[in-house]
Amino acid sequence: MSIVVQGVTKKYGRQLAIDNVSFEAGKGEIVGFIGPNGAGKSTMMKIICGYISATSGTVTVNHFDVQRQSDDVRRSIGYLPEHNPLYGDMYVKEYLSFVAGLYHLGRNSDKRVAEMIEATGLGQEQHKKIGQLSKGYRQRVGLAQALIHNPAVLILDEPTTGLDPNQIIEIRSLISEVGKSKTVLLSTHIMQEVEAICRKTIVINKGIIVADAAVRNIRNKSQTGGSTVIVEFSAPLLRSDFSPIANITQIKTLGGNKWLIQSRKGDIRADLFQFAVNRKIAVLEMQLQEKTLEDAFHELTSSKRI
Ligand code: ADP
Ligand code: MG
Q1: pLDDT one-digit tens code per residue, 208-252
Q2: CATH code at 7?
Q3: Fewer CB within 10 Å of terminal CB in the chain, N or C?
Q4: Rounded-to-integer distance, Cα 302 and Cα 305, Å
Q5: Which residue CA neighbors atom 23 of ligand 1 most closely?
């Protein structure tokens, strides 16, 4: 495993930001690290990179201990911080050469800078000042600096925040490409981002891991297991008419004789059908709403979790 986090807790003074978190990520995996603002994503990433230390617990990167072997860890990791702090007055190429120098790339430096400019599509912009670039291109410079020493592990903190839709697509495909041969941990608060590029997702909320699974399993991972059905009857009904049906948690009128019914039971279509039969009215239409990844995320991270 390239990243192994074991029982990590982080307190800022008295505030608990990370609470006994454990997870792993392996080579060739792009792992989505998702959670609402303030969940602890950036904190966890800074701990993995060794920029801040955990209050307790251990992290290894490429089998190096983050606390005791920090130099080896830094050589193994490329990090794109949340507020990508680039030097606006430096030229793109000059900046990347500067970063290459920090990693002591020596005679390899020029070659690596050229390769990174090529890989991140910065060819046209390489002689511009970083401060003159659009946010999307600055993000590419951020990725280029994270990749320049060919690290095995990439930590990307909200790499697409603030980009326009075209830039988002380009940066995502760049990350997907890079992720084939590396371990990528990518934080985001956008569920579609995870669906687009990650195979595995770790969901964090208030410093606690609430799900760690393949993306396709996360939908079913939310705990309530309830269902939502849109149903149209042939006759008008009152909200109170539904009282004989068990397990209903919410009833919403959609106009006409259409209703949206939420239940804590897996599928209540048969109950609704029986209800209509009992009242001698017809069901004109009935549709079970698929639980979206957004719903699952909301359920997993809302404070009223069951
Ligand atoms: P995320 O990246 O998921 O939005 P953060 O890791 O930035 O979350 O923050 C997690 C929690 O820790 C938040 O409540 C935040 O206010 C707090 N926090 C983050 N950095 C500091 C700090 N340097 N000092 C005190 N509290 C902090
Ligand atoms: Mg953050």
Answers
A1: 998 888 877 776 655 456 788 999 999 999 999 999 999 899 999
A2: 3.40.50.300
A3: C
A4: 6
A5: 12
Residue of 3, 160, 155, 4 lying closest to 77 (CA atoms): 155
At 240-284, the pLDDT tens digits run 999 999 989 999 999 999 999 988 877 899 999 999 999 999 999
**What value does the mean pLDDT of the chain take?**
90
Is any atom of ligand 1 closer than 6 Å to the C-beta of 12?
Answer: yes
Ligand 1 atom 26, closest CA: 12
Q: Which helix (H) or strand (E) holds 47?
A: helix 41-49
Q: Which ligand is nearest to the CA of 41?
A: 1
Overall domain count for the chain: 2
Please tell me if the CB atom of residue 301 comes closer than 6 angstroms to any atom of ligand 1.
Answer: no
Residue 85: phi and psi, rounded to 5, are -85, 95
Task: Answer whether 122 contacts ligand 1 (Cβ < 6 A).
Answer: no
Would you say the CB of residue 42 lies under 6 angstroms from ligand 1? yes
- 306 assigned to some structural domain: no
Q: 293-305, pLDDT tens digit by residue?
A: 677 777 787 754 4
Task: Supply the range of the domain harboring residue 55.
Answer: 3-220
- Of 220, 239, 267, the position where a domain reaches its end is 220
Which residues touch 287 (CB under 8 Å, ≥6 apart)?
229, 230, 231
